[in-house]
Amino acid sequence: MSNQPAPARLTGIAYLPRWLGGTLCYVVFGLGGLISSLTILPILRFWPGTTTQRIARVQYAVHIMFKGFVRMLTWTGLIKVTHGDLQPLKDAQGVIVTSNHPTLVDVVVLISLMPNTSCIVKQGIWRNPFMRGVVSSAGYIPNRGADLLLADCKEVLNRGNNLIIFPEGTRTVIGKRVNDFARGAANITIRTQSDLLPLLLKTNCVGFSKQESWYQLPRRTIGMHIEVGEKLPYLRYDATAGGDAKMARKMTRDLEEYYKQQLDKYL
Ligand SMILES: CCCCCCCCCCCCCCCC(=O)OC[C@@H](O)COP(=O)(O)O
């Protein structure tokens, strides 16, 4: 949780503009996803160039769209994003970027800050007609069987793209600092020999959580403060010493501990 005090809760008629604004955000997101995946994104994707250039172009376009969308979320009072020094994130290349996952809009906020980034996306989104076009044009990775996943991740990281992973796998349960971490992020880091950069999302109130319906719009403005944590080099987990699986377990434990510690300061 962020250390800023939670803002007032809108009730009665005061909630109306928030509701209208929030509903408009959903409409713009849906239409934006649908229309861009039928127009600008395929043009950028199929315009001549190397695969790397073409994917970079689409990811940059999605980054700009999400920047605009975060502006809209801010303007309608749904969220207010602040951040510490983002230079390490701007310099990151071919790095696994992990984050805790308090809200529905986390990935949108993160990609609005990172121009050249892939992420692992759950299967449901690949079946969603509003989002499927965007995620496939942008070269995002479907969360599927371990071997296929690892091969896809290698390709992305070799291109110099970063890869966002939420080790919790799903949004944080209300009242917890983080859910138990899955071992995927550590496994991918160790097996692709990449470094891992942890991001911390510190929110000051509940909203857009997994325990609410997606159409329950936050009555308080969610203050979200983003901090870049300390880089975790894969070399610290020498797989030759203990074997991949054992090292991945250890790295997962360390990472989860680190998140708990860092987020504790803000509870
Ligand atoms: C200017 C408007 C631009 C709008 C463009 C819309 C493009 C749609 C691209 C979809 C990119 C993927 C976004 C996924 C957001 C999302 O749904 O993430 C939440 C999940 O992690 C939560 O997982 P869970 O907690 O398990 O429900």
What does this protein look like?
This protein is 46% helix and 13% strand. It is globular and about 65 Å long. The longest helix is centred in the first third of the chain and has 25 residues, at 51-75. The relative contact order is 0.18. The protein has a single domain (12-265), classed as Glycerol-3-phosphate (1)-acyltransferase (3-Layer(aba) Sandwich). Strands 1-7-6-2-5-3-4 form a seven-stranded mixed beta sheet, with helices on both faces. It is an alpha/beta fold and 267 residues long. The chain has eleven helices and seven strands. (2R)-2-hydroxy-3-(phosphonooxy)propyl hexadecanoate binds next to helix 1, helix 3 and helix 7.
Secondary structure blueprint with pairings:
Layout lengths: L15 H23 L1 H7 L4 H25 L3 E5 L3 H5 L4 E4 L6 H8 L3 E5 L1 H4 L5 H6 L3 E2 L3 H13 L3 E4 L18 H8 L4 E8 L18 E7 L10 H4 L1 H21 L3
Parallel strand pairs: 1-7, 2-5, 2-6, 3-4, 3-5
Antiparallel strand pairs: 6-7
The site of (2R)-2-hydroxy-3-(phosphonooxy)propyl hexadecanoate has 18 residues, from helix 1, helix 3 and helix 7.
Pathway: Lipid metabolism
Protein name: Phospholipid/glycerol acyltransferase
InterPro entries: Plipid/glycerol_acylTrfase (IPR002123)
